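User: Design a sequence. Structure:
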């Protein structure tokens, strides 16, 4: 059974997006054998939502963005992870990933997962021209730009990449991947 094995594990990366931050972290907490990678912006943004009940999980191994060369990504080369989930993903991280830039922990994790052929699920938040989003002090309306929407479409074309644009879609993609791993290990 997948749930009783320690390796390989699920890598979950969180970026500095308030949009669906709460829901993504809730789903992350439900995953057995998962490690969390946190961008510097995510670390700040989570603190800003703390009084609304959003926190990082307490009993999870957390890698923070503290090194220029993204030292923790070596774990992908050593086969520690069967899957990478990036949820929620900012338009910043998606834009960099689409251009092949890896200069933060999460963009490095995305690049190295790709180079190590680790299947990746990205929950892109800027997927509609008009959206209601949760700011630290309540709901606000945002209007993602054409460049944000185009970058999401470009990311869909990446190898071993699944891009989802809803919480239900994220949950289904993670469930499907987990089921597929359970089948192949039984
Ligand atoms: C409270 C707060 C909420 C934010 N929400 C979003 C968001 O929903 N989507 C987004 O693309 N950026 C959002 N940002 C901006 C990102 O945090 C910023 O672009 C940051 O540089 C992203 O870095 P990262 O992609 O490395 O995590 C938010 C910033 C703050 C302070």
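Assistant: Done.
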């Amino acid at each position: 059974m997948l749930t009783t094995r320690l390796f390989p594990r699920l890598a979950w990366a969180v970026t500095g997006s308030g949009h669906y931050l709460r829901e993504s972290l809730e789903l992350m907490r439900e995953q057995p054998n998962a490690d969390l990678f946190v961008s510097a912006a995510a670390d700040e943004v989570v603190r800003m939502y703390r009084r609304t009940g959003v926190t990082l999980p307490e009993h999870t191994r957390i890698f923070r963005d503290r090194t220029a060369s993204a030292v923790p990504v070596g774990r992908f080369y050593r086969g520690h992870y069967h899957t990478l989930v990036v949820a929620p993903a900012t338009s910043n991280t998606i834009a960099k990933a689409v251009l092949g830039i890896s200069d933060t922990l999460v963009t490095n994790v995305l690049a190295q997962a790709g180079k190590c052929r680790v299947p990746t699920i990205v929950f892109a938040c800027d997927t509609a021209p008009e959206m209601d989003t949760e700011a630290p002090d309540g709901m606000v309306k945002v209007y993602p730009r054409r460049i944000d929407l185009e970058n999401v479409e470009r990311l869909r074309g990446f190898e071993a990449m699944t891009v989802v644009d809803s919480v239900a879609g994220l949950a289904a993609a993670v469930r499907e991947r987990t089921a597929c791993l359970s089948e192949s290990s039984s």
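The mean pLDDT is 94. The helical segments are 21-29, 40-49, 74-77, 91-99, 105-115, 146-156, 167-185.
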